[in-house]
């Protein structure tokens, strides 16, 4: 249990014991990084890497077909500050990332999960672990073309997670992802929440080190 009172009111606890390391997992150094969850074919990841040469982005995509396209593009461009990861983002984050290591985390146009609200990021116990990995002052960028998704996220940020945020309308000329291009071309309203982790924000996982430091193959037995 944390030594300080929690800064939020989310009741469900994320259970780390059920996780297993991603296939072909390798650890990373404890240095500041950025993270993209659900990188798709890598359009935003490659753009971010080219525009931010001083920042290293780990971009994660779970699906095989999209990651294949991403990996091909990343291999041709070969930016030194971009690492493409084929894995489940939840397991990879738990096994690889140190407390307060993330400067920025991008979650751009996630599946809105219309039939299962508990699978939306701010309704997931994993979100608390993610917050523990964010540096003080670090930001989570959450974008969606679904107004109800953004509205629900705002309510949860205010009432449950107790986090400051800013809401921004995406410019019609923005082209960070293939989804964003498609939605804006159809005239849909795309918005993003820029969520900031304040200094002194406490979670249950503030002192939880990456699981690779304590996990062994015998844990699967």
What does this molecule look like?
This protein has a 7-stranded mixed β-sheet with strand order 3-2-1-4-5-7-6. It has helices at residues 43-51, 64-77, 89-96, 126-133, 147-161, 178-185; strands spanning 33-37, 57-61, 82-86, 102-108, 134-144, 165-169, 191-196. The chain has 6 helices and 7 strands, in the order βαβαβαβαβαβαβ. α4 links the parallel β4 (102-108) and β5. The mean pLDDT is 95. It has 221 residues and is an alpha/beta fold. The longest helix is centred in the last third of the chain and has 15 residues, at 147-161. The protein folds into 2 domains: 32-97, Vaccinia Virus protein VP39 (Rossmann fold, 3-Layer(aba) Sandwich); 111-199, Rossmann fold (3-Layer(aba) Sandwich). The protein is globular, with a radius of gyration of 17 Å.
Task: Walk me through the topology.
Layout: E1 33-37, H1 43-51, E2 57-61, H2 64-77, E3 82-86, H3 89-96, E4 102-108, H4 126-133, E5 134-144, H5 147-161, E6 165-169, H6 178-185, E7 191-196
Parallel strand pairs: 1-2, 1-4, 2-3, 4-5
Antiparallel strand pairs: 5-7, 6-7
């Amino acid at each position: 249990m944390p030594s300080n009172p929690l800064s939020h009111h989310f009741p469900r606890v994320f259970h780390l014991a059920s996780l297993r390391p991603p296939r072909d997992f390798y650890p990373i150094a404890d240095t500041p990084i950025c993270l993209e969850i659900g990188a798709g074919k890598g359009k935003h990841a490659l753009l971010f890497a080219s525009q931010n040469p001083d920042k290293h982005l780990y971009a994660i995509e779970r699906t095989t077909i999209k990651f294949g396209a991403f990996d091909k593009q990343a291999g041709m461009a070969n930016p030194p500050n971009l690492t493409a990861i084929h894995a489940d983002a939840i397991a990879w984050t738990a096994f690889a990332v140190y407390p307060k290591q993330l400067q920025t985390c991008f979650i751009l146009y996630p599946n809105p999960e219309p039939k299962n609200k508990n699978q939306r990021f701010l309704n997931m116990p994993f979100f608390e672990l993610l917050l523990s990995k964010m540096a003080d002052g670090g930001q989570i960028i959450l974008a969606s073309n679904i107004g109800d998704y953004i509205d629900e996220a705002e309510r949860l940020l205010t009432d449950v997670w107790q986090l400051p945020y800013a809401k921004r309308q995406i410019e019609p000329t923005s082209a960070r992802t293939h989804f964003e291009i498609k939605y804006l071309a159809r005239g849909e309203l795309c918005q993003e929440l820029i969520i900031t982790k304040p200094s002194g924000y406490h979670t249950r996982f503030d002192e939880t080190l990456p699981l690779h430091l304590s996990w062994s193959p015998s844990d699967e037995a």
